[in-house]
Amino acid sequence: MYKLVVRAKKDSDAARAMVRAFYPQWGIEVCTLKGARTRDKALEALEEVIREDAYVIVLLGREDAKLAALEGETPLNVVFHVIRYSKVRNARIYNLFKELERARAAFRNCTAWRGCSYVFTHKAPPLFECREPAYDVFLGLGRGFKARLEELVGELGDNPLLVRMMGGLHAIYSGPIKVAEVVFPDEGAPRGARLGGSVVDVDEDGLIASNEDVIRTHEAVSLRLLGERGEGADEVLVPVSGGKDSTAALALARKAFGAARLTAVYVDTGVDFPQNREYVEKVAAKLGVRLEVEYADVRGQVRVRGFPTHGPGRWCTALKLEALRRAVRRIAQTSSRPVIVVGDRDAESEARSRRPPARVEDGILTLAPLKQWGTALVQLYLLREGLGLNPLYLAGFYRIGCYICPALRSWELYVMTRDGGLARALRGAPLLDEYLRHRGLGA
């Protein structure tokens, strides 16, 4: 999935030591530019390394920074990154690791404004500092999402861009201009500030068309991972939640393996947003894949354990994972080579970014084809594939799950209590009023 390129052999020794220490089992291939210092020689060496279905990261020391000008002459799956040391070999391996993380972040966060649309590529001047691994970029798709944002910051154009930063802070762009900031704290109330700037409408179809080459680039890498590592699989299982990532993973698995040996697995907790199961059923039917539903009695256990909380008090996760494992064991018991495809992405959390794209869990090969995708790319991929988005996203949700989830931030709670359609769909939902009081919102 990854190729790491440095200039010379001594640099490659340092790079390999870093890979062994921080990326074991990732299968990262370390290559060199054969000591090249000139444009022509470096391009010649790169031509031997680049393949269209792998992410190629070129790490350069400051003294070779001029070679980064080749960024504009290489394909979309190649990124150049200049570290703060004169040579790669001079950096401690931990510092090399941090630089590689910044380079990887460029693939999913870099955003440019081209014509009248956002383009999610590092091959053009970025709108903001995009090589921060903790950031994520997503689109405010849907009238409900836009309406909720406008309640906080005033008028916005269609399909604004949001950049998730630190501490719940999000920047909002309308066209190429940063027009507002909002803060979505875990507790309390969301708040926003208008910064100025004019309103720009961004067309949804234009977004898909403008990013077609970018989508194809990431899709090619993902399909290669599935095809090569999943070769010979006779049963492919995809855990689905109704979320964008698991849905995109299912769509990729459908392309890589076909429908006949593919099963989507949904865990019903009894306190799921009703939109989740409805969306999962619709997607499974459209893709022509089998859907298995397993039950985890989160709803019943609330009466025994109380509402889940963060940290050790999040007992619901263990119940859901056990239900998923139960379903996997049942479905895979007649399989000689089962494979699980998951929607893990680096942008979700630091813990998930540490997981290799291919790993063995509970004795079964698990593949994560979306690791390097940003949220905006996942959104556009689902639209491009004709699958649409879960209505909760169009209402304003960033992440979805159960309606009593402790991970629901102030923003999701704000949306739940102000979106009329969502409120009607949830009316009478078991435990909901009690949970809202638990979160200090009243019935």
Structure write-up:
There is one protein chain. 39% of the residues lie in helices and 19% in strands. It has helices at 9-22, 39-49, 93-109, 143-153, 204-210, 212-229, 244-257, 274-287, 298-305, 316-332, 350-354, 375-384, 391-395, 410-418, 420-426, 432-438, and strands at residues 2-6, 29-32, 55-60, 78-82, 112-114, 117-119, 136-139, 161-164, 169-174, 177-183, 191-194, 235-240, 262-268, 290-295, 338-341, 358-361, 364-367. β13, α8 and β14 form a beta-alpha-beta unit. The radius of gyration is 22 Å and the shape is globular.
CATH topology name of the largest domain: Rossmann fold
Q: Which residues form runs of ≥5 with pLDDT under 50? A: none
CA gyration radius, whole angstroms: 22 Å
What kind of assembly state do the chains in view correspond to?
single chain
Structural class, judged by helices and strands?
Answer: alpha/beta
- Number of helical regions: 16
**Strand fraction:** 15-25%
Please give the CATH class of the largest domain: Alpha Beta
Largest sheet: 6 strands, mixed
The average pLDDT is 94
